[in-house]
Amino acid sequence: MAAHRKSAHRKPKQRPFTGPAARTAATLALAGAATATSATGAGAAPAEPAPTAAQVRAKVDRLYHDAEVATEKYNGAKEKEAAATKAVDALADEAARRTDRLNTARHTLGSMATAQYRTGTLDPALQLALSSDPDSYLERAAHLDRAGDRQASLLSNIRRQLSGIARVKARADQETEALAARRAELDKHRTAIRTKLADARTLLATLTAAERAAYERAADAAHGGGPAASADGSTARPDRAVTGAHADRSAPRASVAAPNSRAARAVSFAHGAIGKPYVWGATGPNAFDCSGLTQAAWKAAGVSLPRTTYTQINAGQRVSRSELAPGDLVFFYSGVSHVGLYIGGGQMIHAPRPGAPVRIAPISQMPFAGATRVA
Hints:
Blueprint: H1 2-8, H2 20-41, H3 53-119, H4 124-130, H5 134-205, H6 209-222, E1 228-229, E2 235-236, E3 241-243, E4 253-257, H7 261-273, H8 290-300, H9 309-312, E5 317-319, E6 329-332, E7 338-344, E8 347-350, E9 359-362, E10 368-373
Parallel strand pairs: 3-4
Antiparallel strand pairs: 1-2, 5-10, 6-7, 6-10, 7-8, 8-9
Helix pairs in contact: 3-5, 7-8
């Protein structure tokens, strides 16, 4: 009886599934694993939402600003590259001139050596012993002494010229290394500009046609592409041309006069550039970037300005915002990366950005950084 109870409580032996039963079990196991995975993944971070149109527009604005910063660095690097190229060329010309003089000296020395070889030279005592005319000998001896002095002078001159050429070549090597560094810097800034502008175009392409149009309208308004709205919502008229002997006669006049004829000529040139495209690195006559426009405007007035915003700001006398007069250079952003030409009435003419031509704009649309009076 005990044996019967023991056998009644014994667990049945487990047998592995075979055939259809095995396939069913495998299917159930996979389904369970998939369910467990889904449950585990439910707690993972959701995909980041696509940026809104406003976020895209803000990022595009930053990219355009960064591209302008890179443009001014490019302009500065290009100016330095041009100076380094000029220095290398000048040293190459100097080395060529020195080499020509050295070759001339060597030719003269060679001719003297050849002549002595052909005529031969006798010991002066022997020539005196053989000479029937001591006076004639003394004359010839004096000539030989002078010839020896000349030969020694030529040799000394050649040594000096060789040393000079070596110094010039060493300087040329240094300038060539500097030129290579300038060109590498130029390429870096060029690449940065192109990358940022390409990124801006890519972002703009994610907007709908209506959103892109709205962005362009807002950007135009911010950079003076249309009438600016005043605080009460009314439309403010853009500033007119300044008065003066060289002001734009075809434009309506304002009450603000240019302080002198040169400033008037610079402002007149800027008015003539309105509508021309912005092209980074351009200084006219058919396209400009911001500092290229101000440089060209003052060049038309007979004044030479440096190439970049951060050098132009030091090209004259600093003036406060309240002291601005037509012809002054007005600068924006903390890094002094943008410049315009003030024309009076709180307005300037500037080259805003790619896609936005030269235009009149209020100086209040960008963070003011300072102003300079050129003349």
